[in-house]
Amino acid sequence: MTIYDYATPFLEKYEPTESYYEKCYNQNKEVYDYYFAGHCRDKELKLKKALAEHPNKLEEMQWVATNIPPLVKEITSKYEQVFPVKFTQDVYIFVGLGGSNAYTYRSMDPQIAFCVERLDADEGALEVIIAHEYGHALHHKFTTYSGIEASAIDWYSPYTWLLQEGMATFLSMQVVDVPRDVYFAYTRDVEWLTFCEENQSQIISAFLHDLAESSPTELFKEWFSINGGTTFGYTRLAYYIGTALVESFVEEFGIEQTMTLWGRQDFKKYIQQRLEVLLNS
Fold first, then answer.
1. What is the pTM of this model?
2. Which of 158, 227, 161, 241 is closest to 195 using CA atoms?
C-alpha cells in the first residue's frame, strides 16, 4: 500500500486562484479526472465556492491530511487481524471541491480516496470515515476470497447498496469506538439517529414504497445521497436501514455469512423479506 498525499503540497503553496487549482489538477490529472467524473459534478460552480471557503480552512485541512496516513495503517491492521485479507492498494489524499468526502474506486480490490475539505478535524470522526471506506474494501475482498465473482452481483440494485452501506457501517463499529450517531454522520448528529430509531417502521415503509415505484437513480438520490431526504427531511436514511439489516443478519448467522449474502441466487428476495420483518418488528 502506498499513500499519496497530494493535499499537503497543495496547502503548503496555496494560492486562492482558479489558475492555481487548475495547475494542481493537471499535476495529478488521473486522480482528479476520476473525482470530477463520478464524485464532484458542477466543477466550475463549486470551484468558485471553494475559493471563498478554503482560505479559512487551511489549518483544518492540513490536520486532516497529516492524520489520515497513521489512522489508515492502524485501522487496516485491525481488520487484517480479524479477516483473511491484506490491503495492498494505493490511497489518495487530496483537496477536492466539496463533492464526496471519501470513496473506493470501483473494484473488488479498490484504491481509496479521501477529500480533506469534506472531513472534520476530529480524530474519532476521521477514524470512522476511514474504517467505513476500508469496510467497503474488506467486504469486496472477502467476497472474492469466498469465491464469489463480481459479475454475479447486481451493482445497480438498491438491495446491493443496502448491503454495501450497512456492512461498511457495521464494520466500522467493530474497529472504532465513538458515539453511535458518528458512525452514520461522520460527525455528531444525535437528532438524525434519534429520528431513525423512533421512526424505523415508517422509514422502512417509505423506502419499500419507493423501491417499488421509483427508478434506481431516483431511489439512490432520495435515500443514499446527501442531495436527497425530501420524504422525511433527513438525508441518507438508507444507511440506517442497511445497518439494521446487517445487524439482524449478523445476529442470526454471523458476519462472514452476512458479507457473502449478495452471492445468493435469491438475494433480492431475501433482503426484501427481511425488510418486511424489520418493518413489523
1. 0.94
2. 241
